[in-house]
Every structure is written in structure tokens, then in C-alpha cells.
Amino acid sequence: MGTPSFTPILDAARTRIGAAALEARLVQPRTPAELRAAPDDRYLSQMELRIFRAGLKHSLVDAKWPAFEEVFFGFEPRRVRAMPDEALEALLADRRLIRHWGKLKSVRDNAAAMIAVAEEHGSFGAWLADWPGTDIVGLWEALAKRFSQMGGNSGASFLRMVGKDTFVPTHSVTAAMQRWGAVATAPKSRRDRQAVQDCFNGWAAETGRPLCQLSLILAASTED
Length: 224
Fold this sequence. Notes:
The protein is mainly α. The chain has 2 domains: 77 residues, no CATH class; 101 residues, Endonuclease III, domain 1. It is elongated, with a radius of gyration of 19 Å. The chain starts with 6 loop residues before the first helix and ends with a helix. The mean pLDDT is 96.
């Protein structure tokens, strides 16, 4: 399928919610310099926040996050990687936390993975900064492969949280893409995701807007 013009999509979103209201919803991604400047402990914290939020009310997880910051040493990757099994197991008795063993274990696993990425690229933020937006689905795949519990939409959601420019294939976004004739079905395979990437690349070239804004405009262009 060819990539449709983004003009009618933008017009529809403006008609539905108003031009000013639409622009107020849109976010700006961080610059490569800003991504590089963020320390790895903040990336690990946000990654785990995304993981623990999955399937739960976000406000519940957010209220508990100061306790997570405490027990995981501010998410400093090397200190977390050094935690023995006994220390992780003891957290199952801490009522301040969300006591999900798989997610708790992912903190140490992902600390080790983040250290490995930093050793290869200088820092985790540098890795994100250097990854081209024209292959953001490749970055989702790399996150899912290298990090624990980062499959599905978790990679895209995490990138949105930390400011790396990305679209997020929510139900609203994929439904809008089908409505406007950009894709035939919701993306499921690598080939499907690449087709969606190609559409976003075309729209970015057409409009000059970042992927995150295109994604939000799409979601606003049609009824759920």
C-alpha cells in the first residue's frame, strides 16, 4: 500500500479537537545532546517504571516509585547488577513495593544489559541518540532482544517516556492508519512493522514533524 498524504489526516484531527487543542497535546522529542546528557541510572529507572506499570494503574506504581528508588540504590546500574539473589528475594517481603518476582528480577538483568550497551557505545543515552529515527522499529526490536520484559509496545512506550523520538503503535494509531489506507491490518510481523515505519518516514519527510507528533495526530484524527 502507498503512503497517503498526511494533509487530510492533520485536517481531520484539527476538525475533531480543534487546531489549538491539538497543538497543545503535541510533545517535542529530546535532542541527541539531551539524550546523551541523561545518566544511565535515569534510563534504568524509567525502563523499570514502564515494566512495572504494565498491566497496573500508573498512579499506583508511581506512588510506590520512591521506595523502588531506595531499594535499588537510585538505579545505579553497577550497584544493581551486584545485588545477590538473596537481596532480590528479600524484596518480596517489602510491602512498599510491587512484589512481582519476574519484574523485580528484571531490574538486575536490565542493569547488566545497560552496562553492556554503555561499554559498547559510551553510554546508554549515546546508543539511543545515535539510533536513526528512520529505523525506530529496529530500536524496538533491539530493546526487546537485549532487555528483559521489553517486548510488545513496552519498547516504544519507554522511548516515549525518555524523549527518544518514536511513534507508538497503540490501538488508536493503528486504527487510524487503517482508516486512512496506510495499512490493511494492525502490524504483527517484522514486515508489517517495517511497512508502518515506511509510512511514518514518508510523513516525516512531507511535514517536517517528529514521529511522536505524527503518532499523536493520527490518534486524534479518528474516533476510537
